[in-house]
Each structure stands twice: as structure tokens, then as C-alpha cells.
Amino acid sequence: MSELFKLTLSDITAKLKAREVSAVELATEGLALCEAAQPKLNAFTAFDADKTLAMAKASDEKLARGEGGLIEGAPLAIKDLFAVEGVETAASSNILKGFKPTYESSVTAKLWENGGVFLCKTSMDEFAMGSSNETANTGPVNNPWKGPNGEMLTPGGSSGGSAAAVAADLCFGSTGTDTGGSIRQPAAFTGTVGVKATYGRTSRWGTVAFASSLDHPGPFAKTVKDSALMLQAMSGHDPKDSTSLPNDVPDFVAAVGQSVKGLRIGVPKEYRVDGMPAEIDEVWQKGIEWLKAAGCEIVDISLPHTKYALPAYYIVAPAEASSNLARYDGMRYGNRVDGENLNATYENTRGAGFGHEVQRRIMIGTYVLSAGYYDAYYLRAQKVRTRILQDFEQAFEKVDAVLTPSAPSAAFELGSKSDDPIAMYLNDVFTVTANLAGLPAMSVPAGVDKDGLPLGLQIITPALDEETMFKVGAAIEDSAGFVAKPEKWWS
Amino acid sequence: MSVTADDVRRIARLARIAEPTDRVDALVGELNGILSWIEQLNEVDIDGIEPMTTPVKFPLPQRADEVTDGNCRDKVLANAPKSDEGFFVVPKSVE
Strand pairing partners for A454? Predict the structure, then answer.
């Protein structure tokens, strides 16, 4: 095997454009690499080599004519939540096992328009509900990074397969979705860059819905510049998604490398939580020092309702999920388990098709929306959500961006939290606020802990200001000089 | 507020999930754990606060109310668990 897959997306697109490598050659190698890694990492759920090679061939033809999009010819991994026409899209759930969409999600359609080549579907927590990829119907994904004694670690979740694929250099970028932290937490756990843009910047159409007012499709990439390129290729107004923003997409890539001098960076005191390892605090302090050295002004801020974000999320998200997942009734698509009458068929279908975590969340959602509890739970949570947004709005009167850790720990051992839902939910304590408020946020690798595992820093900016996020992200990346890679044990 | 085994069965029925017979007791514990953790929201002053239903603060475009898609019956039926003669086949629901 060549070393081509170690290159960044920006570098490989330059090589493709210069015809130093062909897209077909690259796609062929990508398929072989993923196939070899699958028994070890368990990161993939579907391949379609014919489709991959046909797309690569079309890219080569365009490139030969001197044409081609932003990322022409680059093989990409796609989270199993995005409909890819003709390729099984199951949201890592038994209820959708075998489902082959007859349509393409808007985000993947944009990626293909911009020249991306479909490489594979990636494993995820079932219906994106989880923080460790352990609720996938195909079993957990192994993080390319192992623990100090060779323990298998979670790549994070829910977009664990997509994060692992980028971390293991098996693709040049991948897609994820972030409803409570499902891109940023896995990015932090795998030493990759993960981004979610302003709510509505990337279309949700054709992406299996979890919690519609919180779902943000976004990219994983090896560098901040690559993540900007990926987001550029995914974003834009989509008439098929009523919440898609009609605003023009700025030049995200151009923002990368621009000076951060004079930017005001907020450091929220509420993001220092009990039991957080000292190393997380240390990497945060380093981030502050790096930005100060780059000419930023550091401002202490308060986001007083931070601690209420997770409990509010665990009302709003399950409520929306219980409604969205009502469509899986075994009638028009998905798998049906017959019963003695219509209701029994619904119940058997959903009882057999959904895993425990999904059932638990549907039940919480059903409960908080049920008669007599709606005001006490759902309405209250929506008002708390307003409070969380107000916290940010007030902060952004004083600062241009907020800097926090991405997750309260490094990647943990598979199985260590799967019996305690709340311990698992707490993984998203730093990320969930940006989902509730709909703000751009990214995780950038910033250092390693005592066991050599990656740690990430999060940058949050005001709505529609992804450019400042990318500027600050690139400044952190430059100063951190994060070059650590996991030892290659998967091929 | 806490839920009982009967509540769990009622919620499962409302959600059209077959009664998780062997998991009812476990679910009582799990749901109560989550609900009591959520109770902390009662500390937040929400007087006069409007509920937030969407993060979109900008005007969204509307399109003309006209048919823009269709004539794809076979695509719609392609993933049906059961279909026949261009129709979905579902269990009898009206006597």
C-alpha cells in the first residue's frame, strides 16, 4: 500500500488535480484499506465497490478535462444516518436493516456534486442515540487509539465509525451528525477535527431524523483546513428542508490561517466541572495561553445555565425522537414483525426492531409529552433552552468566541459506562449547549493525556459566524502542533 | 414525580412498543433515575420566558404551494415489507 491515505484532503485534491494520482487508483486503495481494517475496527456498515469505482471514474474524466469540484476524486466515509441511493442506510438499527434508499440525502448530494467519491457507510450509535457507539446493531466500533494496557476504547459517539475512519487514515474526510455532541466528542476522542455549523447551514433532508431542532450534519477531517473544505462542500440552502438557511455560504477555507489578533475569547467558569481530570484543565489553560500569545484578549465569562443544558436536552431530544421515530411502524419501509392485529403488529415491530437505548428514549419522550406532564417537563425544558441561548447572546456582547474543553475525559474503555445512562449522558456536558442554542462549534485536537490519548478543545461562535470559529480553530491547531497518531494495529 | 411498573407498561403501550416483559423492573429504575436527575430544572427561574422551539432566528423562505415531485410509485414501494399490485399491504385495520 502507498502512503497516500496519510495525506490531508487538501493535499490529495491537489495531487488529483495535478493528475499525479488517479481517483480510481485512490478509490481502489481506499476500499482495500477499509476492508482490511474492518475485522479490527468494526467501523463500517456497508460498501458498494461498483458505485465507488464508477464515481471515481467519473471524477477522473472530469479532472482529465480540467474540470472538477472542490474535493474532486476524494474518497469519503458517510455516517449510516445519511441516505445514499442504492446503499443500505440503516441508522445502525435492526428496524431499518436492509433499507436501501431510492433517493440521496441533500448533504451527500452536495458532496458528490463537489466531486466527493462515496467510499463506505460508517457505524454509529443506533439512531444516533449514544456517546460510545456501543448501541449500534453491529456492535461497538474500536477506537484506533488503544488504552495504556492495550484496552479497546470507544471512539465516542454517536458518529464513532466516521471519527475512527478519519483517525485511522482510511478516508480523507467523513460525515457525522451532531445532536448533543455526536461529532465533537468523537473528534476529541480520536484526535480528529469535528465541526457542526450554525443550525440550518447544512440540510437535514435525507438524513434519518433523531431530534429535528437539534440535529446538525457536519464533517470530520484531519485538519482544520480540511474541515472547512468539507463544510464548504456540504453547506447551502436546500428547499427540501424547511429549516435550511437561505444565507450565502461564506468562504470557510479562506478564514483558515487569518489572524486572530484582537479577537476576544470568552472562558466560561461553568465549564470546570467536578471530577474532571486535571489534564483536561491543563490543556484548556494551554489553549488560553496559545490564543493570548497569538494576540487574543482573554475574557472571563459566565454561562450560568450551563448545568441545566443536559437535563433540558434529555427532555427535548427524547420528545422530538419519540415523535420522529413514530414513522417506524413496519408498514411502508423497515422490518415488520406480524402480530394478531394492527396494534400488535406495531408493537411487535417496534419491540423487536429498536434496541434498549432507543426504546428508553422513546419512552422518556412519550412520557414527557403525555397528558398532565407536558407543562412540567417539555414546556419547562423549552424555556430553559431559551435561558441557555440567552446566556450565549449575553456572552457574545463581550466576546467573539468561547473556548472550552470538548469533552470531560479522554476516550474511555468500551463497556465501562454502558450500564449507567446518566454517566453516559454526561459525556456531552460541554457540547450540548451549542446544540440547544444552534451555534457553530468545533473540536480541535490540542494535546494528549498521560496515557498518550488525544484531548480536544472546543470553539463556539455566534450564529452564522463559522469564519471566526475556523480562524480560532486554526490558531489552536498551529500552536498545539498535534501530530500524535495511534500505532497502526488494524491492518 | 416517579414512575411505577404500571406506568412503564402504559408508556410502552402509548409508544407502541411491545411490553418489555423482562425489562419492566429495570426500566422503572432507569426512567426514575433519569427523571429525578431532570428534576433539577425546577431550580431555574423561567418566569416570563418564552419557550424555544427552534434555533432559527432568521426568516425562512416559503415556496409556492405546488406539486414538485411525484410519479415515482415504484420507488416509494421499493422498501415496503409487503406490497402487491402497486399498493402497500398492511394488516386489516377496519372491520
Answer: A448
- Chain segment B38-76, per-residue pLDDT in tens: 999 999 999 999 999 999 887 888 889 999 889 999 999
Q: Which DSSP category does A316 fall into?
A: H
Query: Are A367 and B50 in contact (CB < 8 Å)?
Result: no
CA distance A314 to A329: 24
Out of A199, A348, A421, the one facing B55 most closely (by C-beta) is: A199
- On the question of pLDDT at B92 being above 70, the answer is yes
The predicted structure's pLDDT at residue A1? 63
pLDDT band at B1 (very low <50, low <70, confident <90, very high): low
Task: Give the distance from residue A242's alpha carbon to the nearest chain B alpha carbon, in angstroms.
Answer: 7
The answer to whether residue A409 is catalytic is no
Interchain contact, A330 vs B3, CB within 8 Å: no
Question: Do residue B52 and residue A382 have CB atoms under 8 angstroms apart?
Answer: yes
Per-residue pLDDT reduced to its tens digit, A332-377:
999 999 999 999 999 999 999 999 999 999 999 999 999 899 999 9
Tell me what pLDDT residue A422 has.
Answer: 87
The torsion angles phi and psi of A11, rounded to 5 degrees, stand at -70, -40
Chain A residues in contact with B48 by the CB 8 A cut-off are none
Q: List, in order, residues 6 or more apart from A187 with CB less than 8 Å away.
A: A156, A163, A193, A194, A220, A406, A442, A443, A445, A456
Interatomic CA distance for residues A314 and A361, integer angstroms: 8
Interface contact A245, partner B, CB < 8 A? yes
Average pLDDT over residues A19-30: 98
Residues of chain A by 3-state class (helix, strand, coil), percent to 5: 45, 15, 45
Other C-beta atoms within 10 Å of A51: how many?
Answer: 17
pLDDT score at A77: 98
Of the CA atoms within 13 Å of residue A475, those in its CB half-sphere come to 29
Task: Read off the pTM.
Answer: 0.97
- State whether residue A338 sits within 8 Å of chain B by CB: yes
Contact (CB<8Å) B53/A373? no
Q: For the packed helices A466-480 and A278-293, what is the interaxial angle rounded to 10 degrees?
A: 100
